[in-house]
């Protein structure tokens, strides 16, 4: 059974320190401390399971929600019922209709938390049409919206999406 981490913030948690390289930890710590994350972070690395934990910790840090001090099989489950978090999941591909729904949902920004965070694990699953529609969201993000994306196939992500995100490698 996972429980809340008693270490204060995501950046103090020993578990978090095992997931991030020192460089990535420094970059993210600075972004959280400044409360100015930019508008899009793209995490990439060899393991999807590890990337899910990275998305969980990052989302928890920016929106100041409790983090877990134990790894579980799907850490993103804890984010699904949060008011200002939109989690996009798909078994095969992410269609353009999903992106249209997201665009409608994020246009007003956050309701309660510091950020409305759009989390797209395995963003390489965006169809070509969906990726092009998602570019509009990235190019004109509403105030207070943060996009967190991850992939273990960075070469499959459109170069225009990569160019609009701060990319961070997770080993």
Topology at a glance:
Layout: H1 14-19, H2 22-34, E1 40-44, H3 48-63, E2 85-87, H4 96-106, E3 116-120, H5 128-139, E4 145-151, H6 159-163, E5 166-169
Parallel strand pairs: 1-4, 1-5, 2-3, 3-4
Helix pairs in contact: 4-5
Briefly say what this structure is.
The chain is of the alpha/beta class. Helices cover 37% and strands 14% of the residues. The chain has 6 helices and 5 strands, in the order H-H-E-H-E-H-E-H-E-H-E.
Order of helices and strands: HHEHEHEHEHE
Low-confidence stretches: 1-8
Proportion of residues in extended strands:
5-15%
* Main beta-sheet strand count, sense and barrel state: 5 strands, parallel
Radius of gyration, in Å, reads 15 Å
Q: Which structural class matches the secondary elements?
A: alpha/beta
SS elements, strand count: 5
Q: What is the number of helical segments per DSSP (H or I, 4+ residues)?
A: 6
Shape, principal axes of CA atoms: globular
Helix content: 25-40%
The order of strands across the largest sheet is: 2-3-4-1-5
What's the mean pLDDT score? 79
Describe the structure.
With 171 residues, the protein is α/β, with parallel strands linked by helices. Helices cover 37% and strands 14% of the residues. The chain has 6 helices and 5 strands; from the N terminus they run ααβαβαβαβαβ. It has helices at residues 14-19, 22-34, 48-63, 96-106, 128-139, 159-163; strands at residues 40-44, 85-87, 116-120, 145-151, 166-169. The protein has a 5-stranded parallel beta sheet, sandwiched between helices. α4 (96-106) packs parallel to α5. The longest helix has 16 residues, at 48-63. It is globular and about 35 Å long. The model is unreliable at 1-8 (pLDDT under 50).
């Amino acid at each position: 059974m996972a429980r809340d981490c008693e270490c204060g913030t995501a950046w103090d948690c020993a578990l978090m320190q095992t997931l991030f390289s020192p460089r990535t930890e420094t970059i993210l710590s600075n972004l959280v401390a400044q409360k100015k994350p930019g508008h899009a972070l793209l995490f990439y690395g060899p393991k999807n399971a590890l990337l899910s934990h990275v998305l969980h910790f990052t989302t928890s840090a920016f929106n100041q929600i409790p983090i877990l001090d134990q790894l579980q099989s799907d850490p993103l489950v804890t984010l699904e019922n949060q008011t200002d978090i939109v989690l996009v999941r798909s078994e095969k591909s992410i269609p353009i209709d999903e992106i249209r729904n997201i665009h409608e949902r994020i246009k007003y920004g956050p309701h309660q938390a510091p950020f409305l965070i759009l989390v797209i694990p395995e963003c390489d699953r965006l169809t070509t049409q969906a990726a092009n529609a998602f570019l509009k969201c990235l190019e004109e993000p509403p105030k207070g919206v943060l996009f967190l994306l991850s992939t273990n196939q960075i070469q499959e992500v459109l170069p225009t999406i990569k160019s609009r995100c701060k990319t961070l490698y997770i080993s």
